[in-house]
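Predict the 3D structure for this chain.
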Amino acid sequence: MPDWEQVYREKSIDAASAADVLLNNSHLLPENGEALDYACGLAGNAFYLASKGFNVRSWDLSETAIDQVNSHAKKTFQKVSGETIDLETNPPELNEVFDVVVVSYFLHRETLRNLYHYLKKGGVLFYQTFSGSQVNGKGPSREAFRLQRGELLSVFSDMQLLFYREDYSVKGHDDNRAGEVFMVARK
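Done. Predicted structure below.
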């Protein structure tokens, strides 16, 4: 497992960008409201949402990342607030707080369903991560950190599906990209 503090000491927040699932489906965003960038890293999703008029909370395990997020938000006068939270062992117990939740490249099955509870009625979940088997070294090598075919559809089957794409990769099939899942769903 990577040393996330070291990873974020070596990265510039200026290089952070929003996830494709959010950028390509921004027309599905509500006009404004409260948003959460879950397992935010350097908060590319958060700053994109703030530019669209949202008040954004950003959660991540890395204190280094959150320090950069809060410093950048203060310098740029954006409505982004970062919080250091261990989302695997101590996720917040909140209900119906956010109009939008965005997750990119984070998977923890034991707390995955919390995302549903964080959304207000009518709230929208944007989710993007790896699936299938690792291809060409992209993404995590451990299958535990990659979704199985249709797994997100099953976990969030009680939500209204707005967009779904699954580029599933299989070991031994060289297609020059790792498999990824892109999902947008409304509570």
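Residues 63-76 form the longest helix (14 residues).
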